[in-house]
């Protein structure tokens, strides 16, 4: 395979990262959990943890956003070997979409069989309240409308086919397990199923943009998740994702409320325990699929 001009999807770089990680951890992970803003506490649920800082790993990006610690936590959860990313990467940080999604391919080389992906998001759907959970059933990839895609460039068939379907991007069976897990941890009345939209950031949305998102059927909006899901599906990995609604999007010019990142982190921390329990229950119910 010829590398991209930037070498950001260079297989040699990815294999070097995977070799280093393999030399540092005793058990290869079977499940990757990506933590959204303020959701790094999910890693506290991992048993027998082994921590690697991103800056230790060759060719690995670095987190620059508050609420993203920049660590990989390896260990077990409900007897499943897992790796938790405490800190993801965003296009607005200056990374290309290829660099944002490099960790997915590294973990695929390490042997993961699935992806749990989480994010903090704004509620576009007027029925959503702060503190609700939205299980992601589909997404709207606004990057793609402008020609931006993490798989743009030469394809590596060892990861996946050049062209692949996305009509089942989020595994339906896993979504049903997510509903069950949410009910078991007391979130049944705060759990929705909806469509996630990606916005480049770093600014939050205008009123006109929110009105447009409501018009086209987006239920929650954020600045991540979709690029990682695209690459995970290219690699043939089943995906379960959820958004934690940290603010209601402003859709009126008369509304003086303004979203801010510090408030978002505070909201996440207030529900941290239930979010952890949701992930624990989900892994418990799906453990046979990953082993």
Overall description:
- By secondary structure, the chain is α/β, with parallel strands linked by helices.
- 32% of the residues lie in helices and 22% in strands.
- The protein is built from 8 helices and 9 strands.
- Strand 7, helix 5 and strand 8 (220-222) form a beta-alpha-beta unit.
- Helix 1 (11-24) packs across helix 2 (97-110) and helix 4 packs across helix 8.
- The longest helix is centred in the last third of the chain and has 19 residues, at 272-290.
- The radius of gyration is 18 Å and the shape is globular.
- The two termini are 32 Å apart.
- Residues 1-6 have low confidence and may be disordered.
Describe the structure concisely for a colleague.
The protein has 291 residues and is an alpha/beta fold.
What key phrases describe this protein's structure?
alpha/beta; 22% strand; 291 residues; 32% helix
Record the SSE blueprint.
Elements: H1 11-24, E1 31-35, E2 47-53, E3 71-77, E4 80-86, H2 97-110, E5 114-123, E6 133-140, H3 142-145, H4 172-184, E7 191-198, H5 207-215, E8 220-222, H6 226-234, E9 239-248, H7 261-270, H8 272-290
Parallel strand pairs: 1-4, 1-5, 5-9, 6-7, 7-8
Antiparallel strand pairs: 2-3, 3-4, 5-8, 6-9
Helix pairs in contact: 1-2, 2-6, 4-8
Pfam families: PNP_UDP_1
Organism: Dendroctonus ponderosae
Function: The purine nucleoside phosphorylases catalyze the phosphorolytic breakdown of the N-glycosidic bond in the beta-(deoxy)ribonucleoside molecules, with the formation of the corresponding free purine bases and pentose-1-phosphate.
């Amino acid at each position: 395979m010829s590398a991209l001009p930037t070498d950001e999807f260079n297989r040699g770089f990815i294999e070097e990262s995977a070799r280093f990680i393999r030399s540092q951890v005793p058990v290869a992970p079977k499940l990757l959990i990506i933590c959204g803003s303020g959701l790094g506490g999910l890693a506290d649920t991992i048993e027998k943890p082994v921590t690697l800082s991103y800056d230790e790993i060759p060719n690995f990006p670095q987190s620059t956003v508050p609420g993203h610690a920049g660590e990989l936590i390896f260990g077990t959860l409900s007897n499943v070997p897992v790796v938790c990313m405490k800190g993801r990467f965003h296009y607005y940080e200056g990374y290309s979409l290829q660099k944002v999604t490099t960790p997915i391919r590294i973990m695929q080389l390490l042997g993961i069989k699935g992806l749990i992906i989480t994010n903090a998001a704004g509620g576009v759907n007027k029925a959503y309240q702060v503190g609700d959970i939205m299980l992601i059933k589909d997404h709207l990839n606004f990057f793609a409308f402008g020609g931006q895609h993490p798989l743009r460039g030469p394809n590596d068939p060892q990861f996946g086919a050049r062209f692949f379907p996305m009509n089942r991007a989020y595994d339906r069976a896993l979504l049903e397990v997510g509903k069950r897990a949410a009910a078991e941890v007391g979130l049944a009345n705060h759990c929705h199923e909806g469509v996630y939209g990606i916005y480049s950031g770093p600014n939050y949305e205008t009123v006109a943009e929110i009105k447009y998102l409501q018009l086209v059927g987006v239920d929650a909006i954020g600045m991540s998740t979709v690029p990682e899901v695209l690459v995970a599906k290219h690699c043939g990995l089943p995906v379960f994702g959820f958004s934690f609604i940290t603010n209601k999007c402003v859709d009126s010019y008369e509304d003086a409320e303004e979203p801010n990142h510090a408030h978002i982190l505070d909201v996440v921390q207030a529900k941290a325990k239930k979010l952890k329990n949701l992930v624990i229950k989900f892994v418990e119910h799906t453990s046979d699929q990953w082993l």
